[in-house]
């Protein structure tokens, strides 16, 4: 009886692949793809490590050494940083920046984006609003420093305020006016007065210089002799003791000399009280009436010769941070507008139209539909601006004059000043950089997570 041949076992059959199911790559294929991806990413990884990772690690280590970098001092730089008044000022200003600038830019960007979406030629207006983004921060700082100069002849903002004030104010100031010497007139702290006392029934003239003919009021006439005073009066003339082109006698009235109108004149008694007051007419004449017989000192108050309203000292320590934040808003509101406009253009408009058909007002459409749908874009814009203002440097360094720089200080400027601007303490400067990194890092993580969530949706 012969033994039957045993057939070899059949190899397992490959399960048929379902339609649409991707074929799983082999382990060798996965390694090959990984190496190809790494080869393409290698230059970027090298640059990232050289320009970001290495400087960050080195800065953290450098912050633990002294200014020379030779002696390890541990946390001493951090203790010094948090006990310095300038650092506290910088942190306070950064908090103000974070609370004001991102909110203002985001709100203005939202308003511009929504309103410009409803008008014709919106692209032209968007171009105007976005145009400051084309200007460097350094150039923008120079522009704003010039605009807010205290001298109205240089700063357009104060020039506008002075022009508006001149419309509603009747001040007739003659800044820089002073009396002729050896004319029996003295000047003290802006006050111009007779050198001695003047008896009632007498005259007291005031020839003044230091005024330009072109600065005289339009109603100015030729200087005239004052009327003969009565027994209870003192009269006189106040004039510009200069003749255009030369000529005339100093201290005496004559042809070509102009009276000074609207100048207040006081009769001051011996006890310092004002016994009578008058105002010069278009020809510069005045009459102090109703005086008791006696002698008085005739004075032109200093208010006649002050500088008048010259605007606001915008670049002083009190206002400098507000001016810098305003310049930042002027630049970055256009960025917020463009980002929000892009989100608005991608939004489903049928929801808004349905709400309008149901009778919803434009305000309800905006608050109940438009704003909630734009919330992801608004968050990204807001967080991006927070990161940007925490690192603000250019505007704060350029706009403030020397006396106001300490009041406008921020962390980035403090770091540069300590490290390179005269302090030469790169250990303390590195500690400030670490502080700035700690403040910026949470907002960067928020932004990255937000981008990841949007990509997964």
TrEMBL record:
Sequence ranges assigned to domain ABC transmembrane type-1 in this UniProt record: 91-447
PANTHER family: BLL4140 PROTEIN (PTHR43227), DIACETYLCHITOBIOSE UPTAKE SYSTEM PERMEASE PROTEIN DASB (PTHR43227:SF8)
Keyword Membrane tagged: yes
GO biological process: transmembrane transport
Positions with biased composition (Basic and acidic residues): 11-24
Family: Belongs to the binding-protein-dependent transport system permease family.
Membrane topology: Multi-pass membrane protein
Location in or out of the cell: Cell membrane
Region (Disordered): 1-29
Transmembrane segments: 34-57, 95-116, 123-144, 319-344, 365-387, 428-448
InterPro entries: MetI-like (IPR000515), MetI-like_sf (IPR035906), UgpAE/MalFG_permease (IPR050809)
Name of this chain's protein: ABC transporter permease subunit
GO-annotated cellular components: plasma membrane
Keywords: Cell membrane, Membrane, Transmembrane, Transmembrane helix, Transport
